[in-house]
Design goal:
With about 375 residues, this protein is an alpha/beta fold. Helices cover about 45% and strands about 15% of the residues. The strands form three sheets. Strands 3-2-1-8-9 form a five-stranded parallel β-sheet. Helix 1 links the parallel strand 1 and strand 2. It is elongated.
């Protein structure tokens, strides 16, 4: 599976954490099912927000990127999110990206506009399967990094493959010109290594927050179809957004809650993880002190139960947890079953060590007591 990672210009906020936690559950479930999981995640360490932040703060963009990547990895470790098989920085994959663009050029799938290289999308799609009406899609494309109104483009939704070198921006030399990659092509190039691992012609799963469904995942699917006979990915999975104080958590609104700051303030990373698991991963949901308190209380109840020498049999409970996770990661059902078991713990015969249940919580949910 291939998960779209961060642009490292700011610390990990709870929206990031919720997304990567969602795919951690998938990762854990597949591994617990006995499957080998080849899991890649990228870091978009070439992007306008990164350069803008570096210029604002008067720092070198590479240094800012590396600092934020280190903080991100620390946050993921604290939240017990299993690391990917490979964390791929775009700056380390330039040649792979350039090779892919060159292949597109060779089959006549691109055109040049003032030195910038675009995919000639209309050769491969009539855009009849857009998630929204065409005009709405064009507007969303503009909001999310696209340039639909640029004069000279053959279609407003043509994605940029390679951006010609501009003054003050990093640049790499290729046979088709100096510059840097477009956004969507990065993921096509990096994820192609999954196929090289000997898997099918399509990757099993591409995932990210639901704001990546369009245009990002739409464009990676479109670009992937150019050189492949099959679908780029068999499944696209998207997690919901995290809201805070009535608004979607975002840098532009200034309402970010950072994982690292919560931990500095004394919140147990286990509590953060548990709080983000209480609601379904696909739902937009709100972060609040009430949610944190609910997680703290459940954590305390679980910790108390697991500290006992003996507890009631939990084999049927583990079966119910696995069943709920198999149904599109139904974590609300998971915790409903766990609460029922905790509620009845005093009324049932204590006959088994809690160790097996503790290990199951760790294996399936990443909750360690």
């Amino acid at each position: 599976m291939y998960i779209c990672g961060i642009t490292p210009y700011d610390a990990t906020h709870l929206g990031h954490a919720a997304t990567y936690l969602s795919f951690d559950l998938i990762h854990r479930y597949q591994r617990a099912s006995g499957k080998k999981v080849v899991f890649l995640e990228n870091v978009t360490d070439i992007d306008d927000p990164l350069f803008e932040r570096a210029n604002r703060d008067g720092v070198e963009w590479r240094g800012l990127s590396l600092d934020q990547i280190e903080l991100f990895q620390s946050d993921m470790t604290q939240l017990r999110i299993l690391p990917p098989y490979e964390l791929s920085l775009v700056t380390e994959k330039i040649q792979d990206i350039a090779d892919l663009v060159e292949r597109f050029i060779a089959v006549g799938a691109t055109y040049s506009l003032d030195g910038d290289r675009y995919l000639d999308s209309s050769q491969f799609t009539d855009f009849s399967e857009l998630p929204l009406a065409l005009e709405q899609s064009i507007g969303l494309f503009a909001e999310r990094g696209g340039d639909p109104t640029r004069l000279g483009k053959r279609h407003p939704l043509d994605p940029l493959l390679w951006r010609k070198s501009r003054q003050g921006e990093p640049s790499w030399t290729t046979i088709f010109g100096d510059g840097r990659p477009g956004w969507h092509i990065e993921c096509n190039a990096i994820s192609s290594s999954l196929v090289k691992e000997g898997l099918n012609s399509s990757i099993s799963l591409q995932g990210g927050g639901k704001d990546l469904a369009f245009p990002h995942h739409y464009m990676t699917a479109l670009q992937g179809s150019v050189l492949s006979e099959g679908a780029f990915a068999n499944h696209y999975v998207h997690s919901g957004m995290i809201h805070y104080q009535g608004e979607k958590m975002s840098k532009s609104l200034g309402n970010l809650v950072f994982v690292s700051q919560l931990i500095k303030d004394g919140v147990n990373p286990l509590t953060i993880r548990l709080a983000l698991l209480l609601n379904h991963y696909r739902q937009d949901r709100s972060w609040s002190l009430d949610l944190l308190k609910e997680a703290e209380e459940l954590e305390a109840d679980l910790s108390s139960a697991l500290s006992r020498e003996l507890v009631p049999d939990y084999s049927h409970l583990i079966e119910k947890i696995i069943s709920a996770l198999s149904q599109d990661l139904d974590t609300p059902k998971v915790f409903s079953e766990i609460r029922s078991w905790l509620k009845d713990i005093e009324n049932k015969v204590a006959s088994v060590s809690p160790g097996g249940f503790s290990r199951s919580l760790d294996t399936l949910l990443g909750l360690t007591f």
